[in-house]
Amino acid sequence: MPGASLSRAALSQLMPMHVGLDAAGLINSVGPTLAKLIEGPVPFKVPFLKVFEVRRPAGITSMEALRVRAGARLHLNLRGKGDAFRGLAVPSSGGGILLNLSFGIRLIDAVRQHALTDADFAATDMAVEMLYLVEVKQAVMTELRRLNLSLLGAKTTAEEQALTDTLTGLRNRRALEVALPALIGQGLAFGLMHIDLDYFKQVNDTLGHAAGDVVLREVAKALVEETRASDMVARVGGDEFVVLLPGLSDAARLKQIARRMIDRLTQPIDFEGVPCRISASIGLTISTLYDQPDGERMLSDADAALYASKRAGRAQARFHQPAREGTLSA
Predict the structure, then answer these.
(1) DSSP secondary structure string, 260-288?
(2) How far, CA to CA in Å, does 242 sit from each of 25, 94, 197?
(3) Which residues contact 230 (CB under 8 A, 6 or more apart)?
(4) How confident is the model at residue 328 (pLDDT cuts 50, 70, 90)?
(5) Looking at residue 104, what DSSP letter applies?
(6) What are the Cα distances from residue 71, in Å, to 40, 102, 257, 271, 274?
(7) How far is 308 from 267, CA to CA, in rounded Å?
């Protein structure tokens, strides 16, 4: 047995991953942790170089070459297995060699693969403690990532809520104030509609605000259904709505959409068996009517066209154009 001054049990306790070789290079001692990794009969009296391959330094293919490299760092692996080790070889009594092995940077994988515990390492080995710290760090990082995702989700939800009208689920005025300059900045032609409900006050006065809320939700649904997914419908006041229609600058097409909306909104809306009758007046404008589109001016022009619609008898649409060209009814 190598290290004659130590018993086999003491050697295994101090170096649970050792390999002892006799003068002929045959294995005569294997630490208990290393024996667990071999997963089979312990290869006593088997040539060391038939069980292990020394990958670095290159050229160690004999016992004599191993002796020459005593004291040098070795890189080894079990033949036919994936386990790789670092090792150090020192001469032992009787011309033998004692090697002590470790996992190196593969410690975490090896512990998981072979279900190793603190008992599989020397009492002075900090490997398991370091492994514990790594796993704690990973757990902390995982939890931090989860919290960050949760916070990001909460932030996104809060931002979405800040831009949403709680009653109808449409975009709100704040969302419009963000979207309109952004659309102008893209340089894309677009249409803008300002819609105000006719006779809505009478619904609230006669049937109450609950009926008014039902009407507003039904109006929101109708406006969304009469526009494209790429359009933006916003509720900007009690019974006022604005619609942005990116890429749509054809006056005839806009008039057609406005007329369809008006026809849809003149249909009675049921509230607890009572028909609520409203209509809609609409003012329209197009970004191409302006040398340099300006959001506030476009909203103001659409608002002026809207009131022209109301003066014309309601359930009408008026299309704003520069003053010299007058207005066109839809």
Answers:
(1) HHHHHHTS-EEETTEEE--EEEEEEEEGG
(2) 89, 96, 12
(3) 246, 247
(4) very low
(5) G
(6) 29, 15, 88, 92, 97
(7) 23
pLDDT digits (tens, 9 = 90+) for 100-113: 988 877 777 777 77
Find, among 102, 118, 99, the residue nearest to 3 by Cα: 99
Beta strand segments in 93-153, E:
97-102
Instruction: Please answer whether residues 327 and 319 qualify as being in contact, where contact means their C-beta atoms are separated by less than 8 angstroms.
Output: yes
d(CA 329, CA 327): 7
Contact 5, 95 (CB under 8 A): no
pLDDT in tens, 174-201: 999 999 999 999 999 999 999 999 999 9
| pLDDT band at residue 3 using 50, 70 and 90 as cut-offs | very low
What SS3 class is residue 27?
A: strand
